[in-house]
Amino acid sequence: MTPPRAIVYRISARLEDETIIIDSVACLNREAEGLLGWSEHEIAQNPAGFLEKVHPEDAPRVREGLRCLFLGVDELRHRYRYRRKDGTYLVVLETLNVTHRAGTRLEWISVWQEASWVQERAEILEALDRAPGVAVVLFRDTFVYANEAAQQLLGYTREELLRLRPEEVLPEELWEAARAFIAEEAYAKGFELLSQELPLRTARGERRDVLVFARTVTYQGRPTGLAIAIDQTQRKRYERLYRLLKDVNARVESAEDQTAFLRAVCALLVERGGLGLAWVAVPEEGTGEFRAVAAAGRAEGFLDRVRVTVDPEVPEGRDPIGTAWREQRIVVVADTRTDPAVTPWREIMLERGFLSVCAVPVLREGRTVAVLALYAGARGFFTEEEIDFLEELQRVLSAALEDIEAEQHRRVIERAVEASPDWIVVTDAEGGIVYVNDAVCRISGYAREELLGRKMSIFRSGYHDPGFYAKLWEAVRAGRSFQAVFVNRRKDGKRFYLDQTIVPVMRNGAVHRIVGVAKDVTVERHLQEEVVLLRYQDPLTHLLNREGFLLEVEGELREREGSKALLLADVHQFTHVNRAFGARFGDALLYTLGQRLRERVARLGGGLVGRVGEDAFGVLLPGVEPSAIEAVLPHIFEAFTEPFEWNGETLSLGVHVGVAFSPRDATSAHELYNKAATALNFSKRKGGENTFSLFDQEMDARALRYLGWRAQLEQSLKEDRFELYFQPYFYTDTRTLAGAEALLRLRDPQKGLLAPSAFIEVLEESPLITAVEMAMLEKIRAFLLSLERPIKISFNISPKSLTNARFLEAIQAISRDVGRYLVLEVTERLLVEEAERARVFLEEVRKLGVRVAVDDFGTGYSSLAYLERLPVDFLKIDMSFVQRMTQSRRSLAIVDTLVSLAMKLGLKTIAEGVETEEEYKLLALLGCDIVQGYYLAKPMPREALEALLSDTASV
To answer: Rounded distance, CA 12 to CA 599, Å?
Structure first.
């Protein structure tokens, strides 16, 4: 049998808005003109008319078949009628094979075969069996034929399908219409070609959308229905999801903020995506529990019952939402009835009819920021096509959130720029104004409409010469910023000043826009001198402040040769003045001091005076050599020591002075100042009032040693290298042990055990002293608690600890265990200088059962009033009196007087430094209660004291 003639074409086409457009048709063999009458050239010249020659009855089916190619089908075989050049129709059997895809463009090879009726009948069943589309034959009310595609689509075997009634593959609402359609009368009558979209129901209960072509044919002499169906489910789902994505993208531009956008997305997914619930979950900081920031659908009564967390260690954190958050992937639960991931909420989900769940993480810059949770009423709802859509939706959401945030940021910037009090102008590359904010209109006096489109020269005042603007344009065209103070003119002719920065915005290497940002400095220009004055002047004394003083000193050092003396003078105990007389008196005193220093410096030939600290003044005296400084200092001291009178109060001050010389000690202002400050610190350490020190290199060395010691002491405290030695003291009348004084020692890794004289000065000047004393009190408590028969332990505390609230708390804690055995020693000087603070502190510790002793009693202070006011238990007579009383009648009289005074006040006396039998007997004769010294016992470690306690009765 001679094979039928065939025409082979190469066709290029595209899909636009569901319309197939043929771009080119090329015949690959020479059979076209013989079969159709159209030459190859005529066919190629009119590709758009290629489909117009299909028989009108066949055209919808042909176009729908071709659309399948655009939905992913690679092969297509169909029969239709095609008009010849002479107007008759040729029945062709066409086989299509797609050869190239590019978006919505396709190319395919088409083979046309002339199909005679004999060939057609032979090929129908073969084609139907191999066709990708569904093909069934109905006879009366049963299936008599179903191809392989029908079995795969519907989920039945051929035998199962042939036992079904046709309406059973349709939704129930279509059964009645289906029965009427396939009734025997309808067959007998015959029905025209049917082309209709119908839903089918599979064996699994899933819905599939198909395009059905049906017609009556004769089978075994009887009218029979032949139905061909093309599965449209995927195409329709893609169309639906594509429209949904378009709607989501459309919401981005109209969204006010990210939350509003997410709410709109949830609503779209529920309304058009066939979902029962959609919500966006974000974890709370701290708890990790997810909360809803947007929701749509059947959320009420559901979200408040479902507790989900990011924690994978609990069941509530292993659900799809928590997993999607942590693993940054889309998580699907196909059947909530059986999947263990939703066990905690299975009952709630089934109540709502949620049979499948999907969680989509929303990512920003590689991290999860939210999870979109979707709930559907059908099992297996989230198919592969849905996942593809959700992956695209995931990308859209992430990009949309970034766009919304950027838009919000842009709006904020725009509002900020518009509302900014600063001048902001944008021009084109030639200086034509394209934008001005409100500040420009306010400052210049022009309305916005008067400025847009005009050149920036509208503001020129004539102040700047052409060279100024030449430099501006040179910088701008080179892509550089230009900054200067612009003198411009307002609309009313008045000048205004702008501190302006001109910034070019480049595009492709050329200037695209020019932005001018400026601050109106008109008022500042008028007040510039006053601003400079305020910056460098002390408002209280009207002297130079520290910054101004150093600036002027630097100028003097640079401009004048010769020796110069820099003096730093600090008022002695100024804080006590403020505390005793009030801040107003203190301010008046400082002002007077400043004026006095000005007068004295003027008498000395001139110089600089500044207030460089709260109660410190700086003086620079040009032309003063180191050898002449002692002649100058009395004038400086006089400014402080001359009595002050204010509101009936009269006061004389003390002063400490440090002096450094340029160029001997330093050549820069800051370095010279630091040298003088070092000398001032040494002057303060001398004690007393009206002291001075001249800087020398040894001070630097001592300062370095101080820093080294301080670092060593900090490390020693961390490493617990501070220890206690104990010097016992005894009752004078019985020589029995009365207690012991705890003495501080430092265990140095290289030098061994160090006495306080090596480090106490540095320790007392540093903030470490209180921490060390608190640590030693803890050691004292531990020691007392370890004793079977505790004794009194006294411990000397520093002035800094006296005012430290944490130190008082430490004593309160210790006193609960050993308070009645603890004696705190304070110096007589401290009781006088800090009388009120001392009184408050000592009253508090006395309430705890702690005793108080006055150390170094009788040295340097004549006022005994504090003994009446302050809670004191012991007076410790200084060893200087004790060791001189056997040679000096005056020292003996002092000791006798102190003992007698203590007796009359009801206080106990402790004599320090007893080193001889004669001193001991004399103290016993005078009635001293307790003695302490090398004669009876030297300082000893804890173990030695414990041995002594085993042989001596304690109090």
So the answer is: 105
